[in-house]
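Summary for the steering committee. The consortium agreed at its last meeting that each partner would contribute one worked example illustrating the joint modelling workflow. Our contribution is presented below. We chose a case with several input lines so that the handling of multiple components could be demonstrated. No manual editing was applied between input and output; the record is shown as generated.
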Amino acid sequence: MSLIYSLYVINKSGGLIFSRDFEGASRLDLNDSLRLASIWHSLHAIAGQLSPAHGCGGIELLSAESFDLHCFTSPTGTKFLLLVEPQCPQVPALLGRIYELYADFVLKNPFYEVEQVIKCELFDQAVDTAVRRYPLMLLSQPAGQGQMLAAGLS
Amino acid sequence: MLGAGARPNRHAVNIVERPIPKTRAEVSTVAFSAYAYLFSELISYAMDRAASITELEERLDKVGYEVGTRMMELLSYREKTVRRKPEVLDVLKFIHSTAWPFLFGKPANDLQQANAADDEYMISDHDLLVGRYISVPRSYATFVPGSIVAGIVRGMLDAAGFPAHRGGGGGGGGAPQKSTTILVKFEAAVMARQAALENARRG
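What follows is the complete predicted structure of the assembly.
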């Protein structure tokens, strides 16, 4: 199965700057989302320090019985969280695609202030399109290929 | 370095050392990302210095004007047109089908005359490259990123000897998401000359 529940973007200081629910999943209260985002940010940092191996970048995947949480951290420390159904394939590729959209529609928008809440209409639309096309992405890319960027899905 | 009489090197790395005439295929392109960042910064710069949305658009228009005058010079040289065409429609077609591909890699979607007035023409583009990544917030609702292109068009017309009023890019709603229309209103002198030309042709 391949259901995408929600997307969260957390800035490098742990503030929630974007959240969007797909599939009409139960919405969290805004205050709750903000608090959980900063808790995740801390957990991520703690996990990085706890790790016995050198160069650990933090938590990338949290598997639970009812959902998977994938986390992608950009080189500047912005985190993209995607809540999906368990065992969804190719989620890192989708996260890479969303990061690409973030770089295009958010960072290249003169009305956006870095680290602030994202209010970009075009970004919302582009993310929706990317998530809607996710099943197509699975068809075009056989599972098992660890490609980061899904080309030709723009 | 170019010595006296030295041949310009076709493969010179430096852009100023390349020959001005180019074949169409050779027209170089820049990365869209790099351009988008630059344009975004340009708008931020203008926003910091403008008190109103109108002033912001005027600032962009001024930048575009400077680009337009220079571009007309370069393109007319490259097109190797021996004579300057004095007709209004010729210069508009030049902008529509020569300047647009040079700027955006495709001709403009539409060029038409306004119904109401003889001296008004409209150039429309359904997906203007400059505004592709820009979401305009509500507080700037009337702002159109295309005003820089309006400035470019004005600059080109002025350089070609067809002074026109700043038409401004009107953001049109319409079916294909965001189409931008640039309204060109020629000055009275241009229309008078056009009328004289038509009379002369009739005999």
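Strands of chain A lie at 4-10, 16-21, 61-63, 68-73, 79-84. Residues 40 and 109 of chain A are 27 Å apart (CA to CA).
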